Amino acid sequence: MPSARLGQAAWKLLQSPAVIFAIALTTRLWLAAQLLPEKAWPFFYEYNEPSRIAWAVVSGYGYSSPWPRTPLLPTAQQPPVYPLLVAGIFRILGAYSVSSLWTVVILNAIFSALTAVAILQIGKRTFGTSVGVLAAWVWSWWLYEAAISIRVWESSLSALLLATALLLLPELGGSRRSLWLIFGLLAGVAVLNNTSLLAVFPFFWLWLWINCRRLQSCNKQLLASIGICILTLVPWTIRNYVTFYRLMPIRDNLGLELWIGNHEGEARLNGDDFLRMVAEYNRLGEMRFMDTKRQLAAQFIRQHPGSFLRLSVQRFYKFWTAPDGSAWILVGPLAWLGMFLALWQKGLTAVRYAIVIVMFPFVYYITHTGSMYRHPAEPVILVLAAYASVSTLQALAKRWRKAA
User: Fold this and answer.
1) What global pTM score does this model have?
2) What is the Cα–Cα distance from 2 to 372, expressed in whole angstroms?
């Protein structure tokens, strides 16, 4: 009896949101303490685009200059939410200061720790307590996740916003309009933080329409939610049009990203290439530079369709397994297995997770990829991988009991 009570207490502790939040936050702050302040410049600030734009903002040059050695002229290379957040911190604590960096890192760590709690709730709600606990603890303890989450980048906030959207989705059916409006605002902020999330939110709305129309009409709420999202994007779109005389809802760098992954030389970009790219950017200006890169990428794809297909397959593999030699060689396939298993067993309920797995990475398959780009989707990936793992273990245990 005492051992049973001890086991119950331990299990209760493992699924405590407060404990999971504390462990995730502690892991990230411990890792940050190993890197700061000695590694502040090479590991965080050097060549960091949000920091560079934030410095330009607080220095009076406006939202401009994403790279060093470039003119201090307006840019739309980055979406605005995260650079402006960093700019606010720079304004208070000083541009490129260690205190500002600590504040950014702590804020990212808090975003990531809150995501751990969201992972717990997502897993418990759809797949059971064991899945939620396993996925949340992997996210909390895994040093890889901690290292990615504390970078001066939008990925921690993006992961939290996407996980929050997934938590809200089941609550919207039949709910009051205010929650639909909150979801639309959340979608707008998420897209202005990470443009790649634009690939998932339209399908979330489609899922909502299919899911709720079985019970009652939700057309008005759906249109209101989409309208709030569009209204959230409008001020930045107007800024871009006034600045560049071009209709550009969020950012202008798709041509560049496409060229980086699809150009002569097997799509490798080294330090010399970056310097030449910056020199070309300075010579042409941002709009002509982005247009030129888009045209070169399109030309490469037309002339080398086989190479483009091969590179896309390589990028697919890299997206799901990078970094080399890590546990992602197992986690990625487990997530896909978990997705198919969830679609088979949960039906429409699991489609919202499949949307993330299928749609979010698509732009990285055709442009270029790296493990840091996967981070916003990793809460869903870990939940599905945990579901596949737990389901497999349960099936093996059931077979073992029958055999016994």
Assistant:
1) 0.95
2) 46
